[in-house]
Design a protein that fits this description.
Largest sheet: 11 strands, mixed
Distance between the termini: 36 Å
Order of helices and strands: HHHEHEEEHEEEEEEEEEEEEEEEEEHHH
Structural class: alpha/beta
Strand content: 35-45%
Oligomer: single chain
Shape: globular
Radius of gyration: 21 Å
Number of strands: 21
């Protein structure tokens, strides 16, 4: 590990040892400090971080705020639109703001910072020893939420994680447990209240019980100066269904890790992702699906649009265990480069140890179809408008899959807005 990474790791550890953990986080803090002390920050010599250099993040002295901002409800609604008020909980610079919450829905949401004891799932699925930023989250987590999904609730739970202080870091923790037969939608919304540079390092643990169904929507729509690392660890039981939607529309440094174990027969996991790179930003998506038992299904579609000098990384792995016969697994990553300076490193992978399976994977990298542009121009569409139409069409497959129509509309509009800004800057 380089001196810069060691110095950054020491600063983080000093912060962790200075803070007094709340009762819910005491054991997590101990385990996180131990794992992070041993492994520190990752470098590009590690295969999982080969294309993602964390030195830009490590070079900033991130502050752990004890007195965060207190924004108004209007300020939150301005950056996290549309607001799903029936299950709204707001965290600012990592701290819960109960005065901004909405009316309760059928799903129960509990702030972990004030909980007297940790939920049973906390620390059980996300491995601090295997993932450096999970360890860092455990070492510094001070607040977060438990979402308990029970019954069938058509209303979405909306957790907003807002950053507003310059050079501030937050480490939110979210635990989601869905009861047998339940149905729910959870939105994790990472936003910026201002143009401040900030760092958010979130960890989500989700367990989908037998016959339950959960849609998990992860939005990264913070400002261009933001640094964001997110890790989701999931487990799906018999005939359970988990759909994830990971939408990343900017940021200086973004890393999304998503790992799901299909642990019961008939379990299903569908992963959709869209990322838009702008400026000199980096967006890295790592996915991992473990078919641990027979008769399970996974379907993965990630699409990237890279403009200006941005870089994208996609690395997806599907593992089919020896006894996981009758597995059906599909994985696809498509990328659209809008600039000669844009770059993508993509590596979809299958690791199959069973012989009665249906598995496929693939990746594409390309530019806008010149013939399609010519076709539109021949019908009176200006070239810039033709390029924008084709790019929106490329992204629409992922955005239209969002289970909340109003959210799909808002994210489509934001995608267009940020795409147009990138085209103007080019």
């Amino acid at each position: 590990m380089s001196d810069a990474l060691k110095s950054a790791a020491e600063r983080f550890l000093a912060q962790a040892r200075e803070q007094e953990p709340t009762p819910a986080f005491s054991e997590l803090r101990r385990e996180g400090i131990a794992a992070f002390s041993e492994h520190g920050l990752p470098d590009t010599k590690q295969e999982e971080w080969r294309y993602t250099n964390v030195r830009p993040l490590a070079g900033i002295e991130w502050a752990a705020l004890h007195e965060p901002l207190s924004p108004s409800r209007n300020a939150i609604e301005g950056v996290a639109t549309p607001i799903f008020a029936c299950g709204l909980e707001v965290f600012v610079d990592g701290h819960h703001h109960p005065e901004l919450h909405g009316s309760p829905g059928a799903s129960e949401v509990t702030a972990l910072g004030t909980a007297s004891a940790p939920p049973a799932l906390l620390g059980q699925l996300a491995d601090a020893k295997a993932h450096p930023f999970v360890a860092l989250n455990g070492a510094l987590a001070s607040d977060g939420a438990r979402v308990h999904v029970h019954g069938e609730d058509p209303r979405a739970v909306h957790l907003v994680f807002a950053q507003g202080s310059e050079d501030a870091a937050s480490h939110p923790r979210v635990v989601i447990d869905a009861d047998p037969g339940s149905r729910g939608t959870i939105i994790l919304d990472h936003v910026s209240l201002a143009g401040a540079r900030h760092f958010s390092n979130s960890v989500v643990e989700i367990e989908v019980a037998e016959n339950a169904s959960v849609d998990l929507i992860i939005l990264q729509r913070a400002g261009d100066a933001s640094f964001h690392v997110g890790h989701v660890a999931g487990r799906v039981e018999r005939n359970g269904r988990l759909r994830t939607h990971t939408i990343s529309l900017g940021g200086r440094f973004v890393r999304n890790d998503l790992a799901v174990v299909l642990a019961g027969e008939g379990a299903e996991c569908r992963m959709n992702g869209l990322y838009l790179g702008r400026g000199a930003g980096l967006i890295d998506n790592h996915t991992w699906v473990d078919h641990a038992v027979p008769h399970c299904t996974s379907d993965e579609l990630y699409k990237g649009v890279l403009a200006e000098s941005s870089r994208g990384v996609f690395r997806g792995k599907v593992i089919v265990r020896p006894d996981a016969q009758k597995t059906d697994a599909r994985q696809s990553n498509s990328n659209l480069l809008l600039s000669d300076k844009a770059e993508i490193n993509t590596k979809p992978q299958l690791e199959i140890y069973a012989d009665d399976v249906k598995c496929s994977h693939g990746a594409t990298i390309g530019r806008l179809d010149a013939e399609a542009i010519f076709y539109l121009r021949s019908r009176g569409v200006a070239e810039d408008d033709a390029r924008a139409m084709l790019t929106r069409g490329f992204a629409a497959e992922v955005l239209s899959s969002l289970p909340e129509p109003s959210l799909a509309e808002a994210m489509s509009a934001l995608f267009v807005e940020r795409l147009e800004a990138a085209e103007e800057a080019a």
